[in-house]
UniProtKB/TrEMBL annotation:
InterPro entries: Chitinase_insertion_sf (IPR029070), GH (IPR017853). This is Glyco_hydro_18 domain-containing protein. GO terms for cellular component: endomembrane system. GO terms for molecular function: oligosaccharide binding. Gene3D superfamilies: 3.10.50.10, Glycosidases (3.20.20.80). PANTHER family: CHITINASE DOMAIN-CONTAINING PROTEIN 1, CHITINASE DOMAIN-CONTAINING PROTEIN 1 FAMILY MEMBER. Belongs to the glycosyl hydrolase 18 family. It comes from Caenorhabditis japonica. The lineage of its organism: Eukaryota, Metazoa, Ecdysozoa, Nematoda, Chromadorea.
């Protein structure tokens, strides 16, 4: 509904429709990819968006599902990566889509941060897919966690880069955009990223106009006991949408506080 109302101002809209499942052979080696979610395509939505703004591109999100233990074999197999890129392109062209936002193997990006060779293979795999998109005039957007994380202890913040400025430039070279998830810090504690972290992300990427910074339209709700016990990392809590937040905000007992431990505002109800 929000996308339709805002269509005249939107260059890209990215519905969450698809998953790319990495196939493995009898030896548990990655061998191909199958894109699932075709039944989720909302053709009425696409038509409505095109009618409201013919220039708007529909670039659905494609999240990769794979076994973590196959990460190395996957990103070091150039032939397979090219085949994956071509499979995605054929799928997008079949449904006349303008491109895609790719969530490509992001969960292992931080686990290999000290392995420069493996990281280089990951970046080159991303580039290969982006180039395949370009060859077919499709928009290629990469969606990954932020390139710099924060470790916060007793109010002090230590900034921990997951990639170098050179590596960031490498990714930005072939993609139309790189979307960093600045609404969650997946690298360490899982709190929402503050303005200083966003600034450092821009600096690391040399303030490239290809960088997309995500701003979420939701919050996370935790029980107060869990929060005070420190159980508020990624994967915990419930999604809190706007209407429910406004309802809680109108509660006379609600207090808006700033938490200096994780550097974010919290709405507390006891």
């Amino acid at each position: 509904m929000l996308a339709r109302k805002s269509a005249p101002r939107l260059d890209y809209v990215s519905p969450v429709w698809f998953e790319a499942e990495v196939e493995v052979d009898g030896y548990r080696m990655p061998s191909g990819v199958t894109i699932r979610g075709q039944e989720n395509i909302n053709h009425d939505f696409i038509q409505a968006m095109k009618k409201a703004n013919p220039a708007t591109k529909i670039v659905p999100r494609i999240k990769f599902e794979y076994m973590p233990e196959t990460f190395k074999d996957l990103v070091t197999n150039e032939v397979l990566i090219r085949r994956i890129g071509q499979t995605i392109v054929e799928f997008l062209k079949k449904f006349r889509l303008g491109g895609a936002v790719i969530e490509f193997l992001y969960s292992d990006l931080y686990t290999v941060e000290n392995d420069s060779w493996l990281k280089l293979n990951y970046y080159e795999s991303c580039q290969s897919i982006a180039k395949t998109f370009k060859n077919h005039n499709l928009t290629a957007i990469l969606a990954i966690p932020p390139p710099i994380g924060a470790y916060i202890h007793s109010g002090e913040t230590k900034w921990i880069p997951a990639m170098t400025s050179k590596e960031c430039t490498l990714l930005l070279k072939d993609f139309d955009f790189v979307h960093f998830w600045t609404y969650n810090d997946f690298s360490h504690q899982g709190h929402r990223i503050n303005i200083e972290q966003i600034r450092r992300t821009h600096e690391l990427c040399r303030e490239s106009k290809k960088v997309m910074i995500g701003l979420n339209f939701y919050g996370t709700q935790y029980s107060l006991n869990e929060h005070r016990a420190g159980k508020t990392g990624v994967g915990n809590g419930n999604t809190l949408m706007g209407k429910e937040y406004l309802k809680l905000l109108s509660d006379p007992s609600a207090k808006l506080e700033f938490n200096y431990e994780n550097m974010e505002h919290e709405l507390v109800l006891e």
